[in-house]
DNA sequence: TCCTCTCTCACATTTGAATCGG
DNA sequence: ACCGATTCAAATGTGAGAGAGG
């Protein structure tokens, strides 16, 4: 096994700009606050190493992505989006009781952005109750036509949430993006659970899996399963402590940690204190020390994350159109492949500097002000209720061919050759190197995406809107 | 050929939305 | 309009087995 850090060192780049957060302050237009609900549950999973099943027809996440928002302008309209970002450029395998790096990541599948079905809706709507992305589904089917988020099995991801102040999907591109991530939400995509402790946790907490609980009617099944597990483990030569560990603690396997500790042991030492902090959090934690992430306050029931904003480049392709195109002609495998390994990679080359440096955004700053922008409680409030906005989105889709709509499609490294999802397909494995500012931010407590996209090339590293579902 | 790893599928069970009738 | 019962689609992990790759 190649040590994680060794591998990762291949991706090491310039350190993330420390000034980004400060720079973003200047752009902050509001104090939007996003809080992750069920934080304790997420933490519990995270401590073990969250796994999310991905299937061809699509599988919901558990725990669900449930958030609460505050600081929105009650009568301004917002769009909520979520996408999945690779944690790193590696593929993993489950070896006995721990995750190990199994090589470099596969080319990133077509990146898709899930649009919350209520979008757009007034700030008051988002703030009056928690926002759930219950319907969001993960799939490993790269040809998926249902709008599920496509992931690779045995790869690590974390969700990224975007709050966009926009009256409708047309104005998204002029709008300000506020992006949030939660360290506790990182997970490994799998087609079958690897860590039995995760299975246990899922069964214990997911109501749909009640039938598998010990006290349930499925005792026999589980008994058999347990026996099988024991037999299997008996075959394992070198995990003498595993069973006892697992049985002792209601679940919380330090074994994953152990695995990572071991892995870490082979590597050059880092800041010990950081490592300790991180280990309390996740078996993955020790890998993410570079950003100097600090632990969230103990005892918090929710995790608050402040935002930064991202300016959507006006030139940027408006992805719902691609959704339209996608819908019309499902992306053929060739398209996907080429988007990932072909142009996608070529593009990565050009993007790297954008990732690693903090561009001056003078040009983008005025844009936020110039933008027609969403109305603020003005008379032009749209009359459509939240439910009707799917119609808006569909209308958007239907108008995809109109001049002046698609006409804004200025930048795309893939545009002519790859009219489908590949256009905005996310970065390949190395496009999310450990020093990716996002990743770095992710490791920091603030999870404050101090990123500005002053030009489209920068923006293009974000897979937003490659697909929207509603 | 064998082995390992990953993935797929059918299954039993549960939940929750939709429907229907009182 | 409301409420309770019923129906049915969707969601869940399990476990066997297929298939690819070394």
UniProtKB/TrEMBL annotation:
<dbReference type="Pfam" id="PF00907">
    <property type="entry name" value="T-box"/>
</dbReference>
<dbReference type="GO" id="GO:0000785">
    <property type="term" value="C:chromatin"/>
</dbReference>
<dbReference type="GO" id="GO:0003007">
    <property type="term" value="P:heart morphogenesis"/>
</dbReference>
<dbReference type="GO" id="GO:0000981">
    <property type="term" value="F:DNA-binding transcription factor activity, RNA polymerase II-specific"/>
</dbReference>
<dbReference type="GO" id="GO:0045893">
    <property type="term" value="P:positive regulation of DNA-templated transcription"/>
</dbReference>
<feature type="region of interest" description="Disordered">
    <location>
        <begin position="1"/>
        <end position="20"/>
    </location>
</feature>
<feature type="compositionally biased region" description="Basic and acidic residues">
    <location>
        <begin position="359"/>
        <end position="370"/>
    </location>
</feature>
<dbReference type="InterPro" id="IPR046360">
    <property type="entry name" value="T-box_DNA-bd"/>
</dbReference>
<dbReference type="GO" id="GO:0007389">
    <property type="term" value="P:pattern specification process"/>
</dbReference>
<dbReference type="GO" id="GO:0000978">
    <property type="term" value="F:RNA polymerase II cis-regulatory region sequence-specific DNA binding"/>
</dbReference>
<dbReference type="GO" id="GO:0005634">
    <property type="term" value="C:nucleus"/>
</dbReference>
<dbReference type="InterPro" id="IPR018186">
    <property type="entry name" value="TF_T-box_CS"/>
</dbReference>
<dbReference type="InterPro" id="IPR036960">
    <property type="entry name" value="T-box_sf"/>
</dbReference>
<feature type="region of interest" description="Disordered">
    <location>
        <begin position="208"/>
        <end position="301"/>
    </location>
</feature>
<keyword id="KW-0804">Transcription</keyword>
<feature type="domain" description="T-box">
    <location>
        <begin position="36"/>
        <end position="214"/>
    </location>
</feature>
<protein>
    <submittedName>
        <fullName>T-box transcription factor 16</fullName>
    </submittedName>
</protein>
<dbReference type="InterPro" id="IPR008967">
    <property type="entry name" value="p53-like_TF_DNA-bd_sf"/>
</dbReference>
<keyword id="KW-0238">DNA-binding</keyword>
<feature type="region of interest" description="Disordered">
    <location>
        <begin position="321"/>
        <end position="386"/>
    </location>
</feature>
<keyword id="KW-0805">Transcription regulation</keyword>
<keyword id="KW-0539">Nucleus</keyword>
<feature type="compositionally biased region" description="Basic and acidic residues">
    <location>
        <begin position="208"/>
        <end position="218"/>
    </location>
</feature>
<dbReference type="GO" id="GO:0001708">
    <property type="term" value="P:cell fate specification"/>
</dbReference>
<dbReference type="InterPro" id="IPR001699">
    <property type="entry name" value="TF_T-box"/>
</dbReference>
<feature type="compositionally biased region" description="Basic and acidic residues">
    <location>
        <begin position="259"/>
        <end position="281"/>
    </location>
</feature>
């Amino acid at each position: 096994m190649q040590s994680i850090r060794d591998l990762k060192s291949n991706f090491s780049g310039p350190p993330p700009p420390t000034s980004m957060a400060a720079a973003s302050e200047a752009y902050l237009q509001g104090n939007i606050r996003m809080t992750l609900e069920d934080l304790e549950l997420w933490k519990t999973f995270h401590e073990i190493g969250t796994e999310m099943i991905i299937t061809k027809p699509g599988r919901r996440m558990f725990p669900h992505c449930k958030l609460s928002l505050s600081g929105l302008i009650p009568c301004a309209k917002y769009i909520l989006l979520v996408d999945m970002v690779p944690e790193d450029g590696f593929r993993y395998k489950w070896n006995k009781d721990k995750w190990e790096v199994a090589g470099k990541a596969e080319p990133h599948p077509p990146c898709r952005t899930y649009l919350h079905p209520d979008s757009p809706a007034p700030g008051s709507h988002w703030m009056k109750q928690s926002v759930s992305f219950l319907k969001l589904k993960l799939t490993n089917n790269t040809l998926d036509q249902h709008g599920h988020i496509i992931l690779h099995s045995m790869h690590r991801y974390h969700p990224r949430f975007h709050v966009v102040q926009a009256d409708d999907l047309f104005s998204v591109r002029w709008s300000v993006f506020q992006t949030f991530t939660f360290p506790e939400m990182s997970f490994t995509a799998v087609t079958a659970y690897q860590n039995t402790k995760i299975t246990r946790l899922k069964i214990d907490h997911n109501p749909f899996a009640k039938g598998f609980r010990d006290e349930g009617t499925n005792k026999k099944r589980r008994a058999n399963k347990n026996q099988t597990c024991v037999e299997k483990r008996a075959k394992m030569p070198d995990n003498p402590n595993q069973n006892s560990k697992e049985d002792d603690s209601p679940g919380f396997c330090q074994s994953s940690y152990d695995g990572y500790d071991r892995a870490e042991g082979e590597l050059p030492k880092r800041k010990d204190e950081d490592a300790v902090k991180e280990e309390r959090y996740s078996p993955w934690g020790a890998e993410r020390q570079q950003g100097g992430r600090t632990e969230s306050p103990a005892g918090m029931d929710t995790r608050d994350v402040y935002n930064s904003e991202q300016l959507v480049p006006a030139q940027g392709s408006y992805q719902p159109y691609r959704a339209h195109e996608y819908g019309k002609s499902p992306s053929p495998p060739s398209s996907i492949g080429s988007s990932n390994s072909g142009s996608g990679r070529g593009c990565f080359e050009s993007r790297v500097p954008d990732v690693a440096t903090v561009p001056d955004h003078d040009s983008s700053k005025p844009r936020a002000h110039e933008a027609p922008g969403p109305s603020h409680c003005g008379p032009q409030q749209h009359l459509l209720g939240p439910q009707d906005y799917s119609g808006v989105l569909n209308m958007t889709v239907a108008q995809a061919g109109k001049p002046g709509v698609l006409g804004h499609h200025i930048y795309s490294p893939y545009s002519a050759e790859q009219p489908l999802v590949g256009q905005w397909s996310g970065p390949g494995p190395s496009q999310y190197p450990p020093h990716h500012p996002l990743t770095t931010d992710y490791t920091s407590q603030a999870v404050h995406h101090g990123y500005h996209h002053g030009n489209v090339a920068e923006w293009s590293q974000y897979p937003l809107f490659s697909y929207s579902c509603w």
